[in-house]
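Annotated sample (chain length 135).
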Amino acid sequence: MTQRKPPGMGFESWIDRQIREAQERGEFDDLPSAGKPLPGAGEALDEDWWIKRKVREEEGTAGLPPSLVLRKQAETARARALAATTDEEARSIIEQLNAEILDALRKPLSGPPLNLMPFDVDELLRERKGTSRGQ
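Output written by the structure step:
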């Protein structure tokens, strides 16, 4: 739980202290985008920036039936798993996707038939190894 600001202490010094203590504990070490520029830094802010970002994140799936959205997510997850840096990361991506697919098979989604079965994790890992050697 976040601590409350002690009475009599200025907000800036209280926040600076919390940041410094978190840095000392190493809580900011190895963040995914460490050393990389912030996305959009230096660009003019568009009034509808958040809408445009949401549309990009949805990858054109907004308004689609849930079964088609899950098919699109499966394509994306498979590509992410093949590009993963470790087998453990690839396995985690596919196992999470498989859980969503199994849930959708148990409780059918609205829209066209799902026509999607859980992925064979070991087969995908073999394919991943074959792909990484070929590059």
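Annotation: The first helix runs from residue 11 to 25.
Annotation: Residues 51 and 76 are 21 Å apart (CA to CA).
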